[in-house]
C-alpha cells in the first residue's frame, strides 16, 4: 500500500485521491450521542458457524462474553454500548486490493486464512454470512473507535486487532486489516498525522508493519514472542521499536520490559493517537502465545499502557486481538473494570 506521504511533488496520486474520496464518503464515522460510552460492540461480532468454529482454538464467543461480564455485573449498561456499522467493500478498498477481496470469495482461501480446513468445503455465501460478516462488523468498530478516542480521550473496541492481515494478504485468523484501515481513516478524517501502534499481542504484528513500511507518520512498538508464528523477518525491518521475548517469559520480567519500552517510546515519538493492540494470548497456558503472564499481569499491562496515554494526554483506542483460552474474556473484563476503578476510563455516560 503506497503512502500519501510518498506522493510526488506535483500532488496526490490518482490512487491517493480515490482512497481519500472513499474515506470521505464512508458511513462508518457515526455521530455517537453523549448518552453512549466509547465501548464498541455488536452481537454480530460473535461467530457461530455450525460448530466448525470449535475446530480453531480461538474462542469465537469471546467478545460477547466480555460484554456480558461487564453488563451483568453492573459496570456497563447495555444501552450505553456503541453499535458499529459493517465495513463495506468501498471501505475495505481504502487499504485492501481488489484482488485480495476477490480472493475471499473462494472458501478455500478463507479456510487457509482462518486455519480451519473444513471451511473450504462450505459454500462461499455461507462463509461470507457466518464468518466474514462478523469480521467486517469488527472492522467497522475499529475504524469508529479512532473517532471516539479523539472525541472522548479513549475508546475500546471489544473486538478487532487483526494484526496479521495486510493490504494484500490475510493469515493467522485475520481476514481484514482493521488496524491499517483505522489509521488511514484517522489521517484523512481526524486531521492527525502521527500515530503510535503499541502491539502487545503475543505474536508479531506483521500485517500493519508491512502496510506502514517506511511511513514516518506511524511509529510501531511491537513486543512479542519471537519463537512463534509468523516469523516474518521482512516485516520486522519496519518495526521502529521491537522487544523480542522468549517462550516462557514470566510476569515480572514482562512488565519490566514493558516499562522500559514505554520509557523509550515516549522519548522517540509524540503521537496524536495511540492504537493499542491488547492481545491476551500472553496469558500463562495459552496454547499459541507460549508466554507465562498471570491474569493480574495482563490487568497491570493494560493499566500501564492507558496510564502512558493519559499522562501525556494522548487519545488511545484499544483492540482486544488474540487470546486462545476461555479465560481470556474474564481477564479482559477484569482489566476494563480495573481501568474504570483507576479512573483511566469512565464507563458511565457524559450525561451522568
Structural commentary:
- By secondary structure, this protein is α/β, with parallel strands linked by helices.
- The protein has a single domain, classed as 3-Layer(aba) Sandwich (Arginase, Chain A).
- Helices cover 40% and strands 9% of the residues.
- It is built from twelve helices and seven strands.
- The protein has a seven-stranded parallel beta sheet, with helices on both faces.
- Helix 8 links the parallel strand 3 and strand 4.
- Helix 11 crosses helix 12.
- The longest helix is centred in the middle third of the chain and has 29 residues.
- It is globular.
- It starts with 13 loop residues before the first helix and ends in an 11-residue tail after the last helix.
- 47% of the residues are buried.
- The N terminus is likely disordered.
> Could you name the CATH topology?
Arginase, Chain A
User: Order of helices and strands, N to C?
Assistant: HEHHHHHEHEHEHEHEHEH
Number of distinct helices:
12
**Shape, per Cα inertia axes:** globular
Task: List the main descriptive attributes of the protein structure presented here.
352 residues; alpha/beta; Arginase, Chain A; seven-stranded parallel β-sheet; 7 strands; 9% strand; globular; disordered N terminus; nucleus; chromatin regulator
Give a short summary of the structure.
With 352 residues, this protein is α/β, with parallel strands linked by helices.
Amino acid at each position: 500500500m503506497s503512502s500519501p506521504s510518498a506522493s510526488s511533488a506535483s500532488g496526490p496520486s490518482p490512487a491517493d485521491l480515490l482512497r481519500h474520496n472513499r474515506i470521505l464518503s464512508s458511513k462508518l464515522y457515526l455521530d455517537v450521542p453523549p448518552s453512549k460510552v466509547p465501548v464498541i460492540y455488536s452481537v454480530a461480532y460473535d461467530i457461530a458457524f455450525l460448530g466448525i468454529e470449535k475446530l480453531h482454538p480461538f474462542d469465537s464467543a469471546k467478545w460477547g462474553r466480555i460484554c456480558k461480564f461487564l453488563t451483568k455485573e453492573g459496570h456497563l449498561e447495555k444501552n450505553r454500548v456503541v453499535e458499529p456499522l459493517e465495513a463495506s467493500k468501498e471501505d475495505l478498498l481504502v487499504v485492501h486490493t481488489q484482488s485480495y477481496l476477490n480472493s475471499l470469495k473462494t472458501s478455500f482461501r478463507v479456510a487457509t486464512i482462518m486455519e480451519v480446513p473444513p471451511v473450504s468445503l462450505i459454500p462461499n455465501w455461507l462463509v461470507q454470512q457466518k464468518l466474514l460478516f462478523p469480521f467486517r462488523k469488527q472492522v467497522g468498530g475499529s475504524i469508529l473507535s479512532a473517532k471516539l478516542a479523539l472525541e472522548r480521550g479513549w475508546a475500546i473496541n471489544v473486538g478487532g486487532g487483526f494484526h496479521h492481515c495486510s493490504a494484500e494478504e490475510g493469515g493467522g485468523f485475520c481476514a481484514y486489516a482493521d488496524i491499517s484501515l483505522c489509521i488511514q481513516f484517522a489521517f484523512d478524517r481526524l486531521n492527525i498525522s502521527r500515530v503510535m501502534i503499541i502491539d502487545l499481542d503475543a505474536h508479531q504484528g506483521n500485517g500493519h508493519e508491512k502496510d506502514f513500511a517506511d511511513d514516518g507518520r506511524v511509529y510501531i512498538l511491537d513486543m512479542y514472542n519471537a519463537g512463534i508464528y509468523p516469523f516474518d523477518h521482512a516485516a520486522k525491518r519496519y518495526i521502529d521499536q521491537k522487544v523480542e521475548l522468549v517462550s516462557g517469559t514470566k510476569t515480572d520480567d514482562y512488565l519490566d520490559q514493558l516499562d522500559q519500552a514505554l520509557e523509550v517510546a515516549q522519548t522517540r515519538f509524540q503521537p496524536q493517537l495511540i492504537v493499542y493492540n491488547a492481545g491476551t494470548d500472553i496469558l500463562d497456558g495459552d496454547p499459541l502465545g507460549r508466554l507465562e503472564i498471570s491474569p493480574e499481569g495482563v490487568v497491570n499491562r493494560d493499566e500501564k499502557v492507558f496510564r502512558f496515554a493519559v499522562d501525556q494526554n494522548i487519545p488511545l483506542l484499544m483492540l482486544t486481538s488474540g487470546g486462545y483460552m476461555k479465560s481470556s474474556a474474564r481477564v479482559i473484563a477484569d482489566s476494563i473494570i480495573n481501568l474504570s476503578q483507576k479512573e483511566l476510563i469512565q464507563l458511565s455516560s457524559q450525561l451522568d
